[in-house]
# Entry
Amino acid sequence: MAERGCPLEAVPLPAEVRESLAELELELSEGDITQKGYEKKRAKLLARYAPLIQGADPSLQAESRLPGPAPSTAPTLRPQKPRPSNTRDERFRSDVHTEAVQAALAKYRERKMPMPSKRRSALAPASAEAYTPPDLHADPPDVTTGLGQPRHAYRERPQPASGRGAPRAGSGSVLETAGGVPVNSRVSSKIQQLLNTLKRPKRPPLKEFFVDDFEELLEVQQPDPNQPKPEGSQMAVLKGEPLAASTAWPPSLLAALRQWGTTQPRAPCLTALDTAGKATCTLTYGKLWSRSLKLAYTLLNKLTSKNERLLKPGDRVALVFPNSDPVMFTVAFYGCLLAELVPVPIEVPLTRKDAGSQQIGFLLGSCGVALALTTDACQKGLPKAQTGEVATFKGWPPLTWLVIDGKHLTKPPKDWHPSAQDVGAGTAYIEYKTSKEGSTVGVAVSHASLLAQCQALTQACGYAEAETLTNVLDFKRDAGLWHGVLTSVMNRMHVVSVPYALMKVNPLSWIQKVCAYKARAALVKSRDMHWSLLAQRGQRDVSLSSLRMLIVADGANPWSISSCDAFLDVFRSRGLRPEVVCPCATCPEALTVAIRRPPDLGGPPPRRAVLSMGGLSHGVIRVDAEEKLSVLTVQDVGQVMPGASVCVVKVEGTPYLCKTDEVGEICVDSSTAAAAYYGLLGITKSVFETVPVTVAGAPVSDRPFTRTGLLGFIGPDDLVFVVGKLDGLMVVGARRHNADDIVATALAVEPMKFVYRGRIAVFSVTVLRDDRIVLVAEQRPDASEEDSFQWMSRVLQAIDSIHQVGVYCLALVPANTLPKAPLGGIHISETKQRFLEGVLHPCNVLMCPHTCVTNLPKPRQKQPEVGPASMIVGNLVAGKRIAQASGRELTHLEDSDQARKFLFLPDVLQWRAHTTPEHPLFLLLNAKGTVTSTATCVQLHKRAERVAAALTEKARLSAGAHVALVYPPGLELIAAFYGCLYCGCVPVTVRPPHPQNLATTLPTVKMIVEVSTSACVLTTQAIMRLLRSKEAAATVDVRTWPTILDTDDIPKKKLGSIFRPPSPDVLAYLDFSVSTTGILAGVKMSHAATSALCRSIKLQCELYPSRQVAICLDPYCGLGFALWCLCSVYSGHQSVLVPPPELESNVSLWLWAVSQYKARVTFCSYSVMEMCARGLGAQTAVLRTKGVNLSCVRTCMVVAEERPRIALTQSFSKLFRDLGLPARAVSTTFGCRVNVAICLQGTAGPDPTTVYVDTRALRHDRVRLVERGSPHSLPLTESGKILPGVKVIIAHTETKGPLGDSHLGEIWVSSPHNATGYYTVYGEEGLQADHFSARLSFGDTQTVWARTGFLGFLRRTELTDASGERHDALYVVGSLDETLELRGMRYHPIDIEASVIRAHRSVAECAVFTWTNLLVVVVELDGLEQDALDLVALVTNVVLEEHHLVVGVVVIVDPGVIPINSRGEKQRMHLRDGFLADQLDPIYVAYNM
# Structure
């Protein structure tokens, strides 16, 4: 490498200086010295050797250290300093790479990213005043501009003692958004920082409208016109030297064993070492032969309980031996071969849940393994069942365990000889192989291949009799088995086996054994070389001069070159010759593919290639990399094996030969290759019987080739180069990336400080039909949050710079928690499985979907609407029947005389008190099911009179005054309501404040009292005391309440005269409620509307005085109030009132009441239904024994102002079917602010119908009906039948024109019981006119409609209603106010939330909202806090997959944080305000970059 002009190489460094440098490195890596001290000492050491260094331009210096292409002669090795670190699993160290990464990071130094926030209980408290609450009315800043904004120094400060770990910005500063516009800094600085970081998604102008709604086409990655293309000629098949037909070779492996066992019985075969490095046992060839014979005899004569032979020739037998016992393994292996059995070596299962253990079980089952051989010591260590037998592992077949220690074996008779035929195509042994996806297959190797492999290795490595080989590899598989157990016996070699446990304790042990045994060959992996570098200081006396071959088994890993170079640099002074290092490439299917040979065995000089990573990602070899940062230096893995032919074919599709400058999959045709995947014919054909073809399509050979799974090319001198493995290949967009390369880049960022033992796993997951890169690393136990976040940001930047690819998810897990492969290393497929199942338990996560996901469908652009004139003809619109429907006509249903008589509810109550005084109207139950109070007609009348008297005399109110009724659910509320009507006052029902939560509930009470301009508050004594208490004074100024009267002890007084309203249009009561979007709205209900509402419900539900109705609803607004207070008085039926709060102490109260009072009709809310489904689902048998029987129920209606929750109603029906609940009983109702009861199932009429619609079409405001179970289908059920007297039409949300059948639009309603308008202090007339008196823009422009604010559609069904007409079903899709407008489409939060809840079993509840154009997902975690971060990636994945949306922020909170109102609806806007004000106390907040 002299021609690179590196100043360090001007003077060759003496060995002692190189050693001092290496020691210095180690001190730095282990934290014994600071970076500054290290640099000082290093400069001192190099001062006299590198006079050039001080004057050199640092940037040139960095460049000059990058290797250039290798010269054709053997290179002068650069004295590259070993960069050791305390990272144990250091497969990927490379100085060159570290420098490239540091240079790449220098570009990004300035970039700020918001840090994820995590809950911390022990943070230093700061003054609470320092924190200004966010101004919720400030406009949210624009997040769509780029990164060119001014930087802000965010002042991090300790938190107020709320125990939350999100740093907040100083309150005094004014932040600027990306556009330079100042915004109020009260918006949480964390979010502000995120906004400043996000780039605006690049939206190309759309030339044509995106019309095809139903096939939302994902963007297809367009090939880059400038991407490099292969230009070389087509490669030719490369043939290795012929396999020498030596007569000295025994005819088979067993013949060799027999020969050495009988002629050289004393010759050592195998030496095993303990963890102290002492030789515990040396197995001689005589012992190996005699013990194998004994075992073969024992196996062949072992009988079952039925006295039949347990095994017959060809049966498969599992070999379960620890890595520390090569002797017993070798005996077992040869014993099986002698008995004509097929050994299947596997790892020792340590626990019942080992990583990958289930797949091993599948392999054993598919191979038909019934017997496992092991040692006494190993069997004692296996997990046991309670019987003392070895436990059955998950997924494993039942096994008989046979201990093969000497005392358990039978000595064969003298004249017994095994009849083993170990030649030909029969299977000799099966080696297990785990694929990228985690599935395990058995690679069957035939006797012929086994023999050919031993001969080829002997020829390639020049093995001779009685040589010593030191083996550090796993002797059960791969090169460790081929060299250390098979080829060694063929050549009567002596193998010294160094166990993994000893390497962990003493990484130098293998070098010491090479030195002690004067070994001629050593078999290692690059990590073993790396470990020994760390431990070599102070070991001056070792010598490696005896080695003629140092075989590096993972030479095919592109990063092994750095370990080889560093090792050579240090140990050259200990007698290691450069030509001794021999990387090789292996794979289970083709066994050894290529191996570098020393010059004395005819090997050409070694070479290395400096390749452009950009070129490699397109599958092209480009040596002259202009971008010096992103290069990959690889070394050759030598020549093709003797007797083999090799070619390189395209990775995908037909196996065409590659061009000479193209990377492809290496294929081998050789007698040494394995035969098949055991029992898997399909994939065997595609891997073991590939026929490579030329461009013209002609096969290159009449023999099939075996695919190796190695990606590479053939370089000069016919040397094989490997640049990666198919298993580690990730195809992102159209480019290919190698997992190992990305690991190396991540490790080069700052491994010693941060990554625990270099343990990093990289894999890809498929999200939205493309591979997404996931990087998981173990962080050191002492790493702080700041360190973690800084490291993650730098890794992202480094990978982006060097590989030009985005990382989708970066997760950090605590040290020692990733699943391990049997001999160290990370079990990648198991890690991936845990990530996808959400059981990885990371402690830090960073998702970057914004930069990675580039194939989202184009945002929709709205099309101009067709003009009205061209659309409507008669009652058809655009060729379809106008979507209009109505309930039954009221005039046909009853005499108008009664309707006139019942025009005012106070008159009705007086009439009932007069005609049926003792008829019971109300019955109130407590949690125990006992009746706490009842009211007959006359009792209610008298109580109402008392209240009216108190209002006129005590409070001195005149008719028309507003009175707030603040009562718990009960009869006092009903009496107070009618008392107000009796004296002409206007009642306003208000939910009382919660004593345990005054701070949040009392302001709402006060607000309603103020907004409704109430002149008086009627309540109970207890609540009155609460309103005037000290605790309440902290929240509300007690002096500002109007007159408060308690109605507990008012005197019995008869009212002089009952107030009679002058006309039915006079205001009867005000109905106030807080909408789910957080808006408090009160509507006015006139006397006419009130009686019309009661009349419609009476007719629909067939309510008569003899009926009993059970009601479990909150009585403060909407239909709940009407059913609780109004309907019984109007219809005369008895209402059994079950206050929902009582269910908290007795969940079964409502169902018990329904059963006890044999209620045919019952009403509840979704929250009540959910409480019953959750709390009683498993207790139906107990309820049955208590006599609960629901067969009396005709209809059970859920009162709601939302889309029906089908999943809940169906599960409720199924759960309580056992208690006699009829299958068709459960249905839903629909009402809203403008009309509290539009649909109600009632007792007559057809059952509710369900349709399935395409969710993708809904996003485009279209309805497309699909079959049940089809992809993207969403079930919608109709919300009950339209009430008598109600007319409904579907109108376009923007043009306000009528729509056709099955078209999605806003539901408009016209009925006698519509509310007459909003009641607000400021009377927003515009709002009122729009909502309560809308007219169609064309068609029927006379009718006045009220706009519900809900999207839905009407569909004519095949069913007939009571009048014999075809039934029109109304389907409610969702509230317009709640919909999210994203990417030009309309999303309903409930749909995104349903996907998120399905994503992981720990998600208890979820709510979504947008802030600017970020989608925020709040998830309640029902599990341990350490599982919180598992949800971040799963939530992001599912929303991307199912909704094509990128989640901006994932907030993980405790159960119960998402606010839910009494109707069971999520208060998303309250949640949003809490999030922006930083009041949620989240467990974790992840900002997806």
